[in-house]
Structures are given as structure tokens and as C-alpha cells.
Amino acid sequence: MKRKNNAISIVLKPKTGGGFNTLLPNLTTWLNKRKFTVQFLCHEAERINRIFPNLPKKICFVDEKEMHSSSDLIISLGGDGTLLGLCRTASKTSPPIYGVNMGKLGFITEFNKSELFDELEKIIKGKFKTFKVPLYKIEVFSKGKSTKTTGHFINDAVMTKGKLSRLITLSVDSEEEHIYNVSGDGLILSSPIGSTAYSLAAGGPIIHPDVNSIVLTPVCPHGLTHRPLVLPSTTKITFRNMTKEGEVTLTLDGQEAFEISRNQSIRISKSSTKYATLVKNPSRAYFHTLKEKFTHGRQN
After folding, report:
1. Which among 65, 127, 156, 218 could bridge 194 via Cys, Cβ 3.0 to 4.6 Å?
2. Helix or strand or coil: residue 25?
3. What is the CB-side half-sphere exposure of residue 294 using CA atoms within 13 A?
4. Rounded to whole angstroms, how far apart are CA atoms 82 and 100?
């Protein structure tokens, strides 16, 4: 790991109770002894002050932009949701992110809590590898003009009806041609990493993360011919809301939501300027993780 600012940021799982009361003081002391300033996001100040009655001098609070520009490393302490939320704010100039799973599933969070200090020692000494996770951009258009509503996702973008259980109707196009119209409970556009999330539960395929693709997965389609569709990751997809009853809810990574009115369109494309760099666990293999987390192909 390159030391530029001698600062390491820690991002915590939101709304967690006392699970960090022992870990954070130990981790902060460990980092301070190695001459690192520890940074937390500004909105965590109240929680951090409760954990540290006497706040160490080498702790400071920063906003998201400063965190990405001033950190040598960012540690994510939480589950996949914590890591996804952090990665959506990253750019190609952001430092590596070290994801430590504090929850149960932890599919994309590469390391377990028990590995935290041993692996962190290796990272500080530069004995680690990384991999890049692309971000996908969404733009909302009304009558062909941008509404300036934008967002990013890593796992998936999901279109559903929302509060009432009614069919939605979407027109789906690529740059070159019309793909199809689909009516059903919803439609999922997922990345390879997201293919093991909601898309998998809806009957979509498992896509290896090295395959440059995206997958369209209808949710309970009202028809016999709509099946999951795998497309190149460079495909620019446009969805137009044709639902007669009105709005459709667009959800990004299960964390951000937008209301899309009738005849508004959503354009989704792979970002050319934003991606997250994650620390890779050398002892973790993809198909082993599938078997461990989803009992995929496991013999009874």
C-alpha cells in the first residue's frame, strides 16, 4: 500500500448497536501505533464519541469527497450493503477498499472479521492484490430531455410497481434496436456481481465476474416467452415506463429509490469514469464462495 497521507478511513455499517465498542478502539490503537491517522465520516461523529469517551488525537472526521481523496486505504466494516453503499461513491482515483464482513452472508465482502488484523498487516506492507468493480450510471429523461436525476449502481437496478401489487409495463431498447416490451411484477438489470443477488432469486443466470456482461431478468412476467437475457456490458439500455396506472419505482442496489412517471425513460450505461478498487482475498475462490454461501453444487 502506498503511503501518501498516512491516513486510513473506516466506514461502518449504519445503525449498528454495540458491535463496534471493543473492535473500534482496538483497531484505532493498532493503526495509530503504525503512524496512521484514522478517519471517519462526519455523520458518524456522535457514534464515535460514544465509543471513545476520550477521543484520541489521531482520529478525525471527513466528508465523502475528502475520504476518497485523502485516504491511503478505506476499511469497510459491515456486510455487502455497507460495501455497496461505499463503492457507489468511489471513482477511479479512490484508494483501495478493504471489505470486512461483520454480518452473515458477505458474498462480495472478501474478508471475515477473524482475518481483519492479519490481512491488514499484509496490506500495509504492500502484500496484496486488487480487482476493479465497474459502476453503472442511470439517467432519467422526460420527453427526451434529461431531468438531471442520476445515480449509480454496482449490483442491480430494479424496476417495480411499488406499494400496490399491479403489473408494470416497460419498453426496453438498446442503441441499435427495440429489445421487447414486458409486463410483469418488475424487471432487473444486473451486473455479473449482482447476478447472485435479486436476479438469481428471480430465475436469472449466475454470471462469472470476469464475463463482461449485463443481464435482464423479468420478475414474474405476464407471458410465456420472456426469459433472462445476457447482453454485452457496453450495451446502453433504455427503459420507458408504459404503465397505465402511473409511476414505477427504480431501486439501485436496494438502497436508493427514484419514482419514474409514465412515459419517462431511464438510460443505463457502464460508467467510463467511475469504478471501485477492492482488495482481493488470495485464499478465496469464486466457486468455493458459491458453494459456501449458496450451497451451489454441494454434495449432501
Report:
1. 156
2. helix
3. 15
4. 10
Residue 221 C-alpha cell reads as 412476467
270 vs 153: CA distance, rounded Å = 10
pTM: 0.91
Residue 120, burial from CB neighbour count under 10 angstroms (0-12, 13-18, 19+): buried
87 phi and psi, to 5 degrees? -65, -30
Q: What is the DSSP string of 32-69?
A: HHTT-EEEEEGGGHHHHHHH-SS--TTEEEE-HHHHHH
Alpha helices by DSSP H, 63-221: 64-70, 80-87, 116-124, 198-201
Spatial CB neighbours of 85, under 8 Å, sequence gap ≥ 6: 253, 255
The 10s digit of each residue's pLDDT in 156-181 is 999 998 766 689 999 999 988 999 99
Beta-carbon count within 10 A of 99 CB: 26
Report the run of H or E that residue 291 belongs to, with start and end: helix 286-294
Q: Which of 80, 156, 173, 210 is catalytic?
A: 80
Annotated catalytic, 80? yes
Read off the pLDDT of residues 22-36 as tens digits, 9 standing for 90 and up: 899 999 999 999 999
Spatial CA neighbour of 108 closest among 215, 6, 191: 191
3 state SS of 245: coil
- Residues forming a β-bridge with 141: 146, 265
| Residues 63, 42: Cα–Cα separation, whole Å | 6
- HSE, CB side, 13 Å, CA atoms: give it for residue 174: 14
Mean pLDDT to the nearest integer, 249-256: 96
